[in-house]
Amino acid sequence: MKDLFNTVPPEKSCVLYVDLSAIQSNYKLLQDFVKPGTVCSAVLKADAYGVGQDQVGKALYDVGCRHFFFAYIYEAIQARLHHESLGHYDVTIFVLNGVFPGTENLFFDHNLVPCLISLDQAQRWADFAKKQKKKLPCILHVDTGMGREGLSQKDLRQYVQGSDHHSHLEILYIMSHMANSNNSGSEKNKVQLDRFLAARNLLPDTKASLATFANSSAIALGENYQFDLVRPGMALYGYKNETYSTLLNLKPCLAAYARILLTRTVLSGESIGYNCTHVCKHDTRVALISIGHCDGVMRAASNKGHVMINGKSAPIIGTVSMDVLMVDITDHPLESVHAHMWAKLYGDITSTMDFAQNEGTSVYELMVRHGSRYHRIYDIGQKAI
């Protein structure tokens, strides 16, 4: 890691280290874990959970992934163009939030597969297919208890029985999304599974032969939930619940660092930062760290948690500002901390989850909040790219 810091431009204040090899390893572990015949895809929405969809997409393609999910069409178009630039013409790209009015031609031109989340979307995509005089691919998303996107049982019956629209579509998979799969003991999981099987039976056999039900957590619930295509998201990046730690040796992919701007001593009785939220009880040596809530460190982390300097904890004190935060280095050897060194915010699973918890949030939110100031180092096989 020390050698990789040599590549950081001198003007950069913070670094996000991304271990693409870890993501590749996690994907292979997941593919090997699911039942034979089940395909493992990759959810790369929100810029691959803030990690970088182009870099992650290529790394996963190199270890055999050919099915990718995105939230919105602009993400999917970027992915299609990127893969084609690399000569990857054998990937299938799905759009989870379906077809906005007026985007039908974009789906068609870029060979994208919409996940149809409402009766309106299903009818519009079928109408477009009819005009093209082609059967167009899609995933039909049904709501089994998430209460979010997806056709209700009533909508599904209306769609199948009330028109011939479905005859113009090539339904690649029937799909649903689980609400509480991270709780393996939840009765909701079985309720949703039963509803999913019932919804599947409403479709003609030829259109319901393949199904996708399992997100990251649901994969760990067992083969009954895995069906034909699983859709891991967070598990790819190495951060999941305790169930996974007993099943798979997932590797975290991120580490965040920030420069130390200066060190100083604040006298006893003086306050630190906005709103005087920390008053020094004794003369306190402080390091000013070049990262703040503009870079994803929430104000809720004020006076909570710590960063690591030279492998030693330095508690966050005072209010986290937009551009900087302060840490207490009183217990560090006098000459061991100085300006221009790097402080580590988080790296392994425990420190990343702890950092998120101290901010009152989740690792999901922590990952997608990394801002544009970070210099990103993509490492694959100990080689920065």
Structure description:
The chain has 385 residues and is of the alpha/beta class. The protein folds into two domains: 34-238, TIM Barrel (Alpha-Beta Barrel), CATH 3.20.20; 254-379, Lyase, Ornithine Decarboxylase, Chain A, domain 1, CATH 2.40.37. Helices cover 31% and strands 22% of the residues. It has 14 helices and 19 strands. The protein has helices spanning 2-5, 20-33, 45-49, 53-61, 73-85, 104-109, 119-132, 153-162, 187-202, 216-219, 234-237, 242-247, 349-358, 363-368; strands spanning 14-19, 39-40, 42-43, 67-70, 92-95, 113-116, 136-141, 169-175, 211-212, 229-230, 254-266, 271-272, 278-279, 284-289, 306-309, 312-317, 325-328, 342-346, 375-379. The strands form four sheets. Strands 1, 11, 14, 15, 16, 17, 18 and 19 form an eight-stranded mixed beta sheet that branches. Strand 4 (67-70), helix 5 and strand 5 (92-95) form a beta-alpha-beta unit. Helix 2 (20-33) crosses helix 4. The longest helix has 16 residues, at 187-202.
